Amino acid sequence: MHTANHTKDKGFTIVESLVAIVILVLAVTGATSAIQIGISSYIFSKDQTIAFFLAQEGFEQIRNIRDENSLKGQNWLTGIANSGDPCEFGKICRVDPIPLGQPFLVRCGDTSGSCPVLRQSPSGFFGYNSDSSWTDTIFMREVMLTSINAKEVSILVTVNWSKGVVNRQFKVRENILNWQ
């Protein structure tokens, strides 16, 4: 009796190799996509947080001027929203927390998008300084005041920014009162 010794080839077929490659490509593509989505979400969250703080700063500056007016015994809206003031009701203005000899409030115009972009100092402050060490940012802040009654004003702060072709906007409204 003679027994035949058949050895089986121990390699991958082309079909098995192609299936393995497809599975590997799908796994890498899925991981890359998840990382890209995570980075995009991080960038959006960071920009939205900056926009929130820029809007809050706009409110704080208006409140500060109102409070200073009270301490000086002036009308609570002096320099803010009276006729001819930068943030006259219905007009769009910008708030500069670091004015460097300029007023805190400056009229931009009557339409949205008329304010310049904010600039950032090397130490991280945002403002409108024209110093060459300050760089343009992607953020634009606009403030508009609306009279509710003689003792109440509504402040609308809008922060716009763009990333590539995507335009974002953060709007927030707050009312301040004449507490004098």
Shape: elongated
Strand line-up in the sheet with most strands: 2-1-6-7-8
Number of helices: 1
Q: Regions with pLDDT < 50 over 5+ consecutive residues?
A: none
Chain-averaged pLDDT = 87
Protein name: Prepilin-type N-terminal cleavage/methylation domain-containing protein
Pfam families: N_methyl (PF07963)
Organism: Candidatus Zambryskibacteria bacterium RIFCSPHIGHO2_02_FULL_43_14
Keywords: Membrane, Transmembrane, Transmembrane helix
Describe this structure in words.
The chain crosses the membrane at residues 12-35. This is Prepilin-type N-terminal cleavage/methylation domain-containing protein. The structure is a single chain. The chain has 180 residues and is an alpha+beta fold. It has one domain (14-177). The chain contains one helix and eight strands; from the N terminus they run H-E-E-E-E-E-E-E-E. The strands form two sheets. The protein has a five-stranded antiparallel sheet, with helices on one face. It has a three-stranded antiparallel sheet with strand order 4-3-5, with no helix packed on it. The chain is elongated and about 100 Å long. The mean pLDDT is 87.
